[in-house]
C-alpha cells in the first residue's frame, strides 16, 4: 500500500521514505504525539459512546433492525476522526472508503505485482505515469480535496496539529508539506479504520454466538467498574477475560491478510534452505 501511494502521488510516506534521517524524525514525532494524546482518548471515546446510547435506545423502542458491522464502523470512523484530525470526518468520505474496500481486496494481488515491477527502472516510469493518470480521473484519489486543516485549526491536541508544530512541545517537523501531512494521516486513518472495524465485527460476532462467554465478559466488566463513566482504556487493558476475547477473535478472523515483500541481502537460510542474495520473498502478515 505504501509503495502504491508513492507511485501514485510521488510522495514518500514514513514506511517508504529513503531518507533515513527524515524518516526517523517524522516517526519519532508521530510516536511522541500519539503518546501525548493518549490521555485525551478516553474523553473522545466517552463523547462518542454518549451519542451511541440514545441511538440504540431509539432503535430498540422502534423495533428497528441493527446492521451491527455498519454501526460499529460508523462509530469507529467518528472516533478516529476525533483522534487523528481533531473532528469527525464526513459520512461521504466513509462511504467512498467502504465502496473501495472490496475493490481493493480484488486488486491487492495485482498491486503486489506492481511493487515488484516498479523496481525495474524502465518499467517503473511506465507504471508511475499510468497510476498517476488513473489517480487524476478518480475522485477518491484526489488527495487535494481531502483537507483536514479545518479540524486542525479547531484543536491543539490532534496528531495533525502536533506534526505541524502547532503544539508547543514539538519543534522538529516544520519541513513536512501539506501534501505529505495529508498522505501520512490518510494512511493512518485507512489502516486504523479497516483493521479495527473488521476486528470489532468479528469480536461481536463470536460473543453474540456464545451467550455463556458474553455473560462472563459482562460479569468481569460489572465487577471492575461500578459506573460507566469510570471506564477507561488503562483499566480495560488489565482485564484478562476481555483481552482473551479480543485475542481469540483476532486469531480466528485476523483483520489483516496479505504479504510484505523483502529482498534478501545478503543471502540467508530459511528453514534449512539457502536463499541467495537479491531474491524477493514474502511472508504472511498474520
UniProtKB/TrEMBL annotation:
Gene Ontology biological process terms from the UniProt entry: mycotoxin biosynthetic process
Please name the pathway: Secondary metabolite biosynthesis
Keyword Metal-binding attached: yes
Q: Which domain of life is it from?
A: Eukaryota
User: Has keyword Cytoplasm?
Assistant: no
Cofactor (UniProt): heme
Pfam families registered for this protein in UniProt: p450 (PF00067)
> What InterPro entries would the database entry show?
Cyt_P450, Cyt_P450_sf, Cytochrome_P450_monoxygenase
Molecular-function GO term, any one: oxidoreductase activity, acting on paired donors, with incorporation or reduction of molecular oxygen
Q: Which UniProt keywords apply?
A: Heme, Iron, Metal-binding, Monooxygenase, Oxidoreductase
- Which family is it part of? Belongs to the cytochrome P450 family.
- Its name, as the record gives it, is Cytochrome P450
Amino acid at each position: 500500500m505504501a509503495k502504491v501511494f508513492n507511485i501514485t502521488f510521488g510522495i514518500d510516506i514514513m514506511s517508504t521514505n529513503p531518507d533515513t534521517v527524515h524518516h526517523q524524525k517524522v516517526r519519532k514525532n508521530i510516536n511522541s504525539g500519539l503518546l501525548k494524546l493518549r490521555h485525551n482518548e478516553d474523553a473522545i471515546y466517552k463523547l462518542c459512546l454518549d451519542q451511541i446510547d440514545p441511538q440504540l435506545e431509539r432503535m430498540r423502542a422502534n423495533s428497528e433492525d441493527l446492521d451491527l458491522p455498519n454501526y460499529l464502523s460508523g462509530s469507529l470512523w467518528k472516533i478516529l476522526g476525533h483522534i487523528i484530525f481533531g473532528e469527525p470526518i464526513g459520512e461521504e468520505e466513509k462511504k467512498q472508503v467502504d465502496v473501495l474496500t472490496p475493490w481493493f481486496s480484488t486488486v491487492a494481488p495485482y498491486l503486489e505485482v506492481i511493487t515488484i515491477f516498479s523496481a525495474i527502472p524502465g518499467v517503473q516510469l511506465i507504471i508511475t505515469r499510468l497510476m498517476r493518470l488513473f489517480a487524476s480521473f478518480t475522485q477518491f484519489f484526489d488527495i487535494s480535496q481531502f483537507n483536514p486543516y479545518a479540524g486542525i485549526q479547531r484543536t491543539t491536541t490532534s496528531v495533525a496539529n502536533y506534526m505541524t508544530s502547532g503544539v508547543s512541545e514539538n519543534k522538529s517537523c516544520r519541513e513536512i508539506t501539506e501534501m505529505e501531512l495529508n498522505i501520512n494521516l490518510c494512511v493512518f486513518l485507512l489502516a486504523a479504520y479497516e483493521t479495527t472495524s473488521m476486528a470489532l465485527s468479528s469480536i461481536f460476532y463470536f460473543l453474540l454466538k456464545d451467550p455463556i462467554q458474553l455473560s462472563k465478559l459482562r460479569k468481569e466488566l460489572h465487577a471492575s467498574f461500578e459506573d460507566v463513566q469510570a471506564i477507561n482504556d488503562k483499566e480495560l487493558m488489565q482485564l484478562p477475560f476481555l483481552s482473551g476475547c479480543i485475542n481469540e477473535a483476532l486469531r480466528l478472523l485476523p483483520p489483516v491478510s496479505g504479504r510484505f515483500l523483502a529482498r534478501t541481502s545478503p543471502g540467508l537460510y530459511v528453514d534449512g534452505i539457502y536463499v541467495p542474495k537479491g531474491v524477493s520473498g514474502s511472508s504472511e502478515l498474520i
